[in-house]
Amino acid sequence: MPATIRDVAKASGVHVSTVSRAFSAPQLVNAETRAHVLAAAEELGYRPNRAARALITGRTHNIGLIVADIANPFFPPLIKAAESHARGRDYHVFVADTNEDAGVEEELVLALAKQVDGVLLCSPRMSNTQIEQLSREVPLVVVNRPVPGLPAVVMDVAQGARLAVEHLVSLGHREIALLGGPRGSWTNREIRRAATLAARTAGAELVVLGPNAPTEESGSAQAEAVLRAGVSAVLAYNDLMAVGLIDALDHRGVKVPDQISVVGIDDTALSRRTRPMLTTVATPTAAAGRAAVDMLLQHGDDRRTTALVTLQTELVIRDSSGPGPHRTAGPGRRQQPPVDGVASESRE
Amino acid sequence: MPATIRDVAKASGVHVSTVSRAFSAPQLVNAETRAHVLAAAEELGYRPNRAARALITGRTHNIGLIVADIANPFFPPLIKAAESHARGRDYHVFVADTNEDAGVEEELVLALAKQVDGVLLCSPRMSNTQIEQLSREVPLVVVNRPVPGLPAVVMDVAQGARLAVEHLVSLGHREIALLGGPRGSWTNREIRRAATLAARTAGAELVVLGPNAPTEESGSAQAEAVLRAGVSAVLAYNDLMAVGLIDALDHRGVKVPDQISVVGIDDTALSRRTRPMLTTVATPTAAAGRAAVDMLLQHGDDRRTTALVTLQTELVIRDSSGPGPHRTAGPGRRQQPPVDGVASESRE
DNA sequence: AGTTCTGCTGCAAACGTTTGTAGTCGCATG
DNA sequence: CATGCGACTACAAACGTTTGCAGCAGAACT
Asked: Any keyword Nucleus (chains A, B) (predicted)?
C-alpha cells in the first residue's frame, strides 16, 4: 500500500535507479530531473524502505544500546547523550534493557545483530569470552569494562574509589566498609581493588561486604551488616545503594554523617536528593555515551583505532561524609582531586 | 561474510526453501531433514537476516516506543513492562527519547515507521491531527492521551485529581494551587479540568499555575508563585515537580505539611524518597505498558478492537499532606479511593 | 489397477532498494 | 569528420529471505 520507489519512478517518468540516485547521490542526477522526482515523491508520500536499503548496503543506520537496568538513574543521562549524538550523525539508537541478566543480554545482542550496524554494550554482566564471541556477530563497543581486543570506554572508577577512601581517611576514618556491587561487574572489581590498595596504603582497614544487587533495597538490606562490622564509614558501589543504606541507617536512628559517613559513586540526580546530600564520585556518563557512539561509528571506516578510552572521575564532596572517630589531619571540605591522577591500568 | 540461508542449504544438501521452512514452518518439513538442517545451521553459526525477512513478510517483529524523557522516573517502569511483555511474544522494543520536543517526536515516528510493526507513542506533545497523519505511516497506539479513531491507553488521572482535591478539602484546605504541567499534554488538561470541578463542588478555590516544564527544577522555580498565591495546599502535575517544590519550600523555611500540603501524581520511586514522604496519585504505569503492547499486537490481526483502555488510579496518602487552616471534618489518613469511582469521559 | 490423498521437497518469483555497466546525446576537440 | 568526453540516464543483477505452486513418491482408498 505505501508508495515504493517504483511508483515514484512511474509518476515522474524516469527509471527507478534515477529515483534512487535522486535521494542517495544527488550530484549524479540532473538538478531539473531531481526536482521532478522529489516533487513526485512528496506527492505520493514516499518514504524509502530502510529494510530494503539495509539489505543491499549492509548498513542500517541504527545502533543498539544495551543497558542493565533502565530504571537505574545512572543510565538515562548516558542514553540521552548517545541518542542525541547519534541523531546528529543520522543514526538512530535502539535501547534495550536486560534486567541485569546475562542471558537476556546475550539474547538481545543476537536479536539486534542483524538490524543495527553495531551495539553499545553498557555494564555487561556476561563473561569476556561470551562478549568476544558475540563481537563476531556484530561490531561491539563495550562501556564500563575493558575487553581485550574490543573497543571500549571505561570510567576511571579506580581513581574515584582511591580519592573517596583518601577523603575518608583524611577525615579520620580508620575502619571503612566497601558495599560491593553485582558479581560479573568489572567496575565492582576495580573499585574493590583500588579501595583495598588505597586503604592499605593509608593504614586503614577495609572490610568488603558483598556481592550485592546494585539497588536501593540491597543497600538498605546491608545496614545491619554495616553496623555489625563496626566501621565508621562506608563506600558504596553506587549512589542507589548509598541512598538505600542512608535510609536504613536513618530508620535505626543512626546519624549520617555524625555516626557513620557514607560515600556513593556515580553522582546521579539522586545524590542531591538525599538528606544529607550525598558525597559521591562523579562519573562522566554523558561523555561516555558520546565517546562510545564515536568509537562505534569510526570503527566502521577505520579498523581498530583507539581500543580503550578512559574517562576521568572526580570526587564531589557534599554532606554525607564527616569527621571520623580518630581525628588526625582533616583538610576537610572542598577538596579537589589531583588533575594529574594516575590512570589505572585497565586490564581484564 | 556471515552465513546465509544458501550456505546452510548447500551444507545440508537441501533447497533454500526447505531451510527456510525448517525455521519458520517446522510442521511442513520432515523431522529428520529438519534435524539435519538445524545441525548444519548451528555448525555455520547461521542467524536469519531479519531485514530480508521483513522485506518479504512485511513484519519486522520490532515495536517502537517513544517517550518524552527517559530520565523522568515515570517512564522506566512503563518501558520495562512493555519490553518484557513484548519479549514474551517474540517482539523487541526499541526505545527512543524526544526530549519533550514535538518536532523530534514526529521525526522519530517517521524514522521508525519502516523498521517496526508499530509504535507506542507515550505522552505525545504533538497535535491530534499530526498524530492522525502519522498513523497512516505506521500503526500507532497512543499512551496517556486519547486520540479519536486511534487505539489508546490512558490513566484515569481525572479521578486521581478529584480524589486528591477531595482529600485536601477534607483536611480543611480551602485554597489550593494546581502546579500545571507542559502545554500539549492531555493529562495536564484532564487534571486541570477535574481538579477545578472537584474544588468548585467542594466549595474550595483552585488557582492554576502554569503551564510548566514537568521537571524538578520547574517545580522549585514555582515556589515563589505558590507562596504568593497564599494557598495552603498544592497539587502538582507530577511527582518530579512536587519534589522540586518541597525542596524549594524547605529552603525557604516553609514546613511541609505543617504550613503547606503538597500532593504529587505518578507515585514514582521518588515519592518514597522525599522528607516528608509524598502523598501522591498512583498511576498504573506497568499495566499501561503491557496494555499498549497488547493493543498494538492484536491491532494487526483483528481490526479496531477496543479503541480506548482506561486504567484506574489510586490516591496514596503519605506524609506531605496534613491538616489545613480551616479544620472542618478531617476523616484523615488511610483513606481508600472508592472502588466504583466514575471513570472520566475521555474526550480529546 | 486406477485414483485420490498425504507428506514432503524443489522451483522460481517476489519484496524494495542500490550500484556497476553500458548506452545515449550533445558538444568540443583533434 | 571522426573521435573523445562529460553529463546524464536506463538496464539488470544483486541482497537474503518467504511462499504459492508444482512435482513426486508412497499409501490408502475404490
From this structure: no
